[in-house]
Design goal:
By secondary structure, this protein is an alpha+beta fold. It is built from three helices and six strands. The N and C termini lie far apart (43 Å).
Length: 153
């Protein structure tokens, strides 16, 4: 499908199998940094996570378009929650790598929708990917790797 005609993901029913995702779905903020930037979780399930943000002018660079750091933070948050939805309760899985491809400029004041999925979650390593859309158009995408750490570290 051409990325110009990619529909924004619809908010569907949210189902969870346990883990950190339970807290998000029950209304807990997605974390202090994500909350500061205005990110919200729309849905999370075994297939992944959907997040939404409506960026303001304070999230722009000097050229008036959204700052790449804002977009990469949204991708970082979404891939992190996608991995946490697939790993056991209480097991940290911090990013060890995030690669972002910026496809086109994003504008402030218009919703961004990001979908992320955990591609694999093993005992030591997990990986995820994500895409941000605005007005149905692909803005940026990312792939990430995460270290699955044993409980208590």
């Amino acid at each position: 499908m051409d990325d110009r005609t990619q529909p924004e993901p619809a908010a569907g029913p949210t189902t969870v199998h346990g883990g950190a995702a339970d807290e998000i779905v029950s209304g807990t903020d997605p974390g202090p940094f994500s909350s500061l930037l205005g990110f919200e979780v729309v849905g999370i399930d075994d297939a992944g996570v959907r997040m939404r943000a409506v960026p303001g002018p304070e999230h722009c660079n000097g050229g008036g378009i959204l700052h790449g750091g804002y977009l990469s933070s949204l991708l970082d948050s979404a891939t992190g929650w996608a991995v946490h939805a697939r790993t056991p309760d209480g097991v940290p899985a911090p990013h060890v790598q995030l690669t972002v491809q910026y496809v086109r400029a994003a504008q402030p004041g218009r919703p961004l929708v990001v979908t992320a999925r955990c591609v694999s979650a093993g005992r030591r390593i997990a990986s995820a990917d994500a895409e941000i859309h605005q007005d149905g158009r692909l803005i940026a995408r990312a792939v990430s790797s995460h270290a699955v750490l044993p409980t208590g570290l």
